[in-house]
Amino acid sequence: MNELSLILPEILLTTFVCLVLIVDVFRSPDNSAATFWSAVISVLAVAVFLIVGGFPEGRQTAFAETYVLDTLSVTLKIFLLLVVAGSFFYAREYFSNKNQERNEFFILAIFSTLGMMVLISAQNLLTVYLGLELLSLSLYAMVAMERDSVAASEAAMKYFVLGALASGMLLYGMSMLYGVSGTLNLSELADQTIGGEKNLLFTFGLVFVLVGIAFKLGLAPFHMWVPDVYQGASLPTTLFISSAPKIAAFAMAVRVLIDGLPGLMAQWSDMLIILSVASIAIGNVVAIAQTNIKRMLAYSTISHMGFLLLGLIAVTNQGYAASMFYVFVYSLASMSAFGFIILATGSGSDLDLIEDYSGLGKQKPLLGFLGMVVLFSLAGIPPFGGFWAKWFVLKELVASGHVWLATVAVVFSLVGAYYYLRVIKVIFFDEPRDADTSTSSRGMGTVMFGINTSAIIFIGLFPGVLMGICLAAMSIYGAP
Fold first, then answer.
1. Between the CA atoms of 155, 225, 347 and 423, what dihedral angle is there, to the nearest 10 degrees?
2. Of 77, 205, 265, 360, which sits with the fewest C-beta atoms within 10 Å of its C-beta?
């Protein structure tokens, strides 16, 4: 019973998703909001349960040490559930504007969230794979949800095939680690790597494991699925994929690399440097050439994930906390960016091209201003949250002696600022292309966008609050 109490959040979410399915089956045809509200309440109820339950002291494991509960896992799960709930409000706004019923979106998203929660608490390579596949299979279905769209079907097929390839690489790496160590338990694996024996064989397995992690984070050169999926999927699906799974992928990197392979820090930090530089360079440079805003944000994601790695490369407790801060701020900013597109689209056709936003700031000043705040945050311009996210990782990178890497990151950040400022220029300084015929959004998505953007501003003004939470969560790896 003690072990069951540790996985109670996952049990609750599984129970709730079954209830959401029942609600969706038995609701009246004219009550499409029932599924949405039951999904939101389910996710928020689990978040409240975690908050009320408090943070555990030390690390508690369950089921033969395949599952771990600690301050890191609780913090990540609470934030993850809040991001998922926020994405539901944006999705509801979009589907209402389009007069569509896509209730399967909410059900698949909860199943995907369940996989993310398992991944966050994984303490065994099999548990890592179980959580990853539950997360991934749900996302494949969400991308393919628009059955009438050729672009969505093509994106789903690419995502599925490349995802299967990445899963195969990850499993091969895990089998190598198991073959060398004789264990799938991350703690026992850590003890063997710290010993320093057989490190060459461990490194061979590490390469394949990193390929799987790089694919899930969308890091170059394993990034080719990102722009295609972002462009082909529906806006709510793209919003969800760009935010919540990034938190789970960060947790996966922490569990496997820091928990499971601490003795190989020198090796995996060198590999992460290559992935980071490639991602920051390719993401920022290629984004400049994009005319489709979803593809531009996709390449922006690639560069941000490269920045996220910088804190892990520092291999210090403060560096890990800086990366955690970064993934939190990026998830909020990415959700806001796609929320801005949903609200700007309204009931009209999707605004896919950057030039479609010409003069939006003159037609809808408040929406244009909040969109500018989001883009400034993504560009890392003070005083918004994105600036502090970059500042913290760069500070820890310099403190760890990687001055050249911090310099490269800053240079490409300046390059990246161009394509964000270009969108702001189009919104405020270009003349509207035609009359604004779409109906403006006035629903829950608008309220959510206001809350979302306010959170980015709040983090920018008071970064110490979130950073304190991140440092407390990472305290399991030693005193800062």
1. -150
2. 265
The span from the CA of 93 to the CA of 441, in Å, is 8
Cβ-in-10-Å burial (0-12, 13-18, 19+) of 204 comes to middle
H/E stretch holding 68: strand 67-69
- d(CA 240, CA 221) in angstroms, rounded, equals 23
SS3 state of residue 410: helix
Residue 66, number of CB atoms within 10 A of its CB: 20
What is the rounded average pLDDT of the residues 125-130?
Answer: 93
By C-alpha distance, which of 39, 139, 136, 17 is closest to 88? 39
pLDDT in tens, 408-467: 999 999 998 999 999 999 998 888 876 554 545 567 888 899 999 999 999 999 999 999
130 — phi, psi (to 5°)? -60, -50
Under DSSP, the state recorded for 374 is H
Beta bridge partners of 61: 68
285 close to 301: Cβ distance less than 8 angstroms: no
Neighbouring C-beta atoms of residue 480, cutoff 10 Å: 12
- Spatial separation of the C-alpha atoms in residues 160 and 5, rounded to whole Å: 35
State which H helix or E strand residue 227 sits in: helix 225-232
Helix axes 235-253, 104-120, angle to 10 degrees: 10
Which domain covers residue 133, as residue numbers?
A: 2-477
pLDDT for residue 442 = 60
Q: Quick one: pLDDT at residue 134? A: 92
The answer to whether residues 393 and 322 touch, using CB atoms and an 8 Å cutoff, is yes
> What would the pLDDT profile of 61-105 be if each residue is shown by its tens digit?
888 889 999 999 999 999 999 999 999 999 998 988 888 788 889
pLDDT at 169: 92
What is residue 221's predicted lDDT score, i.e. its pLDDT?
86
Predicted TM-score (pTM) of the model is 0.94
292: which strand partners? 353
Tokens of 319: 């560096």
User: What's the domain count of the chain?
Assistant: 1
pLDDT of 480 higher than 50: no
Q: Please give the Cα distance from 263 to 233 (Å, whole number).
A: 40
Place of tokens 């305290």: 475
Give the Cα separation of 325 and 323 in Å (integer).
5
